[in-house]
Structures are given as structure tokens and as C-alpha cells.
Amino acid sequence: MPSYKLYYFEGRGLGEASRQLFALADVSFEDVRLTMEKFMELKSTLPYGQMPVLEVDGVQIPQSVAIARFLAKKFGFAGKTEVEQAIVDGICDQWKDFYAEIRPYCYGKFGICPPGWEDLEKAKTEVLIPARDKFFGFLKNLLNKNKSGFLVEGGVTYADLFIVDNMTSLVGWFSGYFEGHPEIEAYYKRVQDIPKLKAWLTKRPNTPF
Ligand SMILES: N[C@@H](CCC(=O)N[C@@H](CS)C(=O)NCC(=O)O)C(=O)O
User: Fold this and answer.
1) Which residues form the GST N-terminal domain (predicted)?
2) Chain CA centroid to CA 172, Å
3) Domain with residues 4-76+198-203, CATH architecture
4) Do β-strands 30-34 and 4-9 pair in parallel, antiparallel, or remain unpaired?
5) How far is the CA of 53 from the centre of ligand 1 (A)?
6) Separation of 44 CA from ligand 1 center, angstroms?
7) Which residue of 14, 92, 93 sits with most ligand 1 atoms within 8 Å of its CB, as the best mutation to test the pocket?
């Protein structure tokens, strides 16, 4: 078994889906959580100066989605066929587009408002809610296409993990996040109820994002 070391900040952010893949697969890893001060010391040694970074037997892999996809393929959470894997990759890309679209709202919540978006209520109504409704429509179509309860027929994948973890941040900031979307709320709970994931969620540090 290779030795795995995952570097990220204390929060969930872009590192959490990979931590969850280790938990789902019951594979041990070193969960390195850096303070900003420690990160700044290491920054110049990281491939793109950012985290997450996964070290596999000392070799560094950057970029959150590449890391999660690598682990998901190894552990069986990337889709069951090549076609399904491509669909899962596309779902994750679509989620990244959504993540970019809602930046004015999320960055406000991180305390780094982009210029012109200082009013968080305005960012919620004009950016988050329309983007959410569009994205939830895509998720509903995917959920209705199969009977697994997840986004593809072959069961839970790394795309479910990114999407559901991001929902945890959003519903923490905006309690009405699932209002009018009971199927999506049920999906959110279904993913978190997977026994090994539930065990991880219970023991991990509790952070707002
Ligand atoms: N596209 C990259 C983005 C990585 C990223 O933005 N990382 C942030 C934390 S979420 C970071 O390292 N920020 C510190 C910095 O850029 O100095 C990914 O998905 O991994």
C-alpha cells in the first residue's frame, strides 16, 4: 500500500472530498492540516503554490479534482464503466462551473467580498438562488435517470462527495438553501447516511466550510 499524505487547511473546502474517499475506502492517510503560517512557509515548494496537495510515496499531486479522481479510480468511486466515468467527470466539471458562478456569495461569506458584491443579501438573491435553481435542475435530471439514489447508476462517486460537501457549507450559511427542493435535500441526506461516510462526518473536526 502506498503512503498517502494529504495537505490542506483545517477546513473542509477543496480537500474534504479526498479525505472522505479515504474514509469510504477504509484506507489510512496522513491528514495534514496546515495553519496559514505553516502554509506560507511551504507555499513555494508546492507544485502550483496552493492546496490541496496529495503526496503519494513522496510524489506531489496538485489540484483538488485531479487528486479526488485519482483516489476515486483507485478505490472504486469514479463510476463503474468508462462511459460512466466520463459522465462523472462531467458532473464534477459542471459543479466546478457552479462553484465559480456563486463566488460573489461564497467569497462574501469567507470575508473577501469581490468589489460590487458587499451586499450579501443581493449576492444571495441575484447570484446564489438563480445558480442553485439551475444546478439543482441538472441534479434532479441525473437522479431521475437511475435508481441508485446517487448521480449515476453505479453508486456513490467522488462527484457526489464534492457536491454534497459544498451543500453543507451553503446550508450552513443559508438555512433555506433546500427550500422548494425536497428531492435534493433527500439526496443530500442519503449521501451523508452512507455508513462509512457517516462515521467520518461524526469524528472529523467541525468547520463552517
Ligand atoms: N483549482 C485549485 C484551487 C486551489 C485553491 O484555490 N486553493 C486555495 C485553498 S481552497 C489555496 O491554496 N489558497 C492559498 C493561496 O492561494 O495562497 C484546486 O481545485 O485545487
Assistant:
1) 2-79
2) 15
3) 3-Layer(aba) Sandwich (3.40)
4) parallel
5) 10
6) 13
7) 14
Contacts of 7 (CB under 8 A, 6+ apart): 15, 32, 34, 42, 46, 51, 52, 53, 54, 55
- Report whether 166 contacts 135 (CB < 8 A): no
Amino acid at 119: D
Q: What is the CATH number that goes with domain 82-194? A: 1.20.1050.10
Pocket of ligand 1 (CB under 6 A): 13-14, 50-52, 63-65
Cell 477546513: give the residue.
11
- Domains 4-76+198-203 and 82-194 equal at CATH topology level: no
Encode pLDDT of 33-86 as tens digits.
999 999 999 999 999 999 999 999 999 999 999 999 999 999 999 999 999 999
13 CA closest ligand 1 atom index: 10
pLDDT tens for 102-131 read 999 999 998 888 889 999 999 999 999 999
Q: So where are the chain's domains?
A: 4-76+198-203, 82-194
